[in-house]
């Protein structure tokens, strides 16, 4: 079974889906926001910070992700005279979930490991909500937000501005993920049913590859 990358704008269910994949397939969950927070704390000079400048943060973390995905996902190949296959642990799989991906930069670095394209080595899952309006986002966030969510303290105007951004962001990233070989799932409606479909699709592809 392949490692998995989940991508999508905020509040589309990436973390919940990653947990379900962990429960079903025992993939170790890597949360990109937490990873970037660690970089921000340990290496502030790298400017890898979330909730700051999205484009800069995404660009700054891309080199690490390119090398990480290349080195830890290869079942063959060499890098810097290191036999990657020798250090592979059978069945040690992960699911990486987050929204800060520059796939052009990541793929360029990934290719230096001579192991093909991202889409050939990963199950690529994109979560979008293209069937939801700004009012729909607003209603859902007001209904389901908890104190753990960073939008919880927004006043109505701030939240509506964010929801308007979410609409355009989902449309933009849909095209971006399609370009890079992702299978797209829309979580505008019944998420539990969508997640069930994704789990079934992952399981079906695993059976097909045997």
Structural summary, described in words:
It is a single chain. This protein is α/β, with parallel strands linked by helices. The chain has one domain: 3-Layer(aba) Sandwich (Rossmann fold), CATH 3.40.50. The chain is built from eight helices and seven strands, in the order βαβααβββααβααβα. The protein has helices at 14-25, 32-42, 54-73, 103-110, 118-121, 134-144, 156-179, 191-208, and strands at residues 3-7, 28-31, 78-79, 82-83, 94-98, 122-128, 183-186. The chain has a five-stranded parallel β-sheet with strand order 2-5-1-6-7, sandwiched between helices. Strands 3-4 form a two-stranded antiparallel ribbon. A hairpin with a 2-residue loop joins strand 3 and strand 4 (82-83). Helix 3 runs parallel beside helix 4. The longest helix is centred in the C-terminal third of the chain and has 24 residues, at 156-179. It starts with a strand and ends with a helix. The mean pLDDT is 88.
Q: How would you describe this structure in keywords?
A:
about 210 residues; 5-stranded parallel β-sheet; 8 helices; alpha/beta; Rossmann fold
């Amino acid at each position: 079974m392949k490692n998995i990358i989940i991508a999508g704008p905020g509040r589309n269910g990436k973390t919940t889906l990653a947990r379900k994949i962990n429960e079903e397939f025992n993939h170790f969950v890597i949360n990109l926001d937490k990873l970037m927070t660690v970089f921000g704390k340990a290496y502030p000079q790298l400017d890898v910070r979330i909730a700051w400048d999205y484009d800069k943060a995404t660009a700054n973390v891309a080199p690490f992700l390119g090398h990480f995905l290349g080195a830890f996902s290869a079942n063959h190949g060499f890098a810097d005279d290191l036999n990657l296959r020798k250090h592979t642990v059978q069945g040690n799989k992960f699911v990486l979930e987050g929204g800060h991906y520059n796939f052009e930069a990541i793929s360029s670095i990934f290719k230096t490991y001579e192991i093909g394209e991202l889409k050939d080595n990963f199950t690529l899952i994109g979560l979008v909500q293209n069937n939801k309006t700004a009012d729909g986002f607003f209603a859902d966030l007001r209904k389901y937000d908890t104190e753990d969510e960073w939008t919880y303290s927004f006043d109505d105007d701030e939240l509506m501005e964010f929801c308007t951004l979410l609409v355009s962001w989902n449309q933009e990233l849909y095209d971006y993920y399609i370009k890079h070989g992702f299978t797209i799932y829309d979580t505008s409606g019944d998420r539990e049913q969508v997640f069930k479909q994704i789990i079934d699709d992952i399981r079906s592809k695993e059976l097909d590859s045997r």
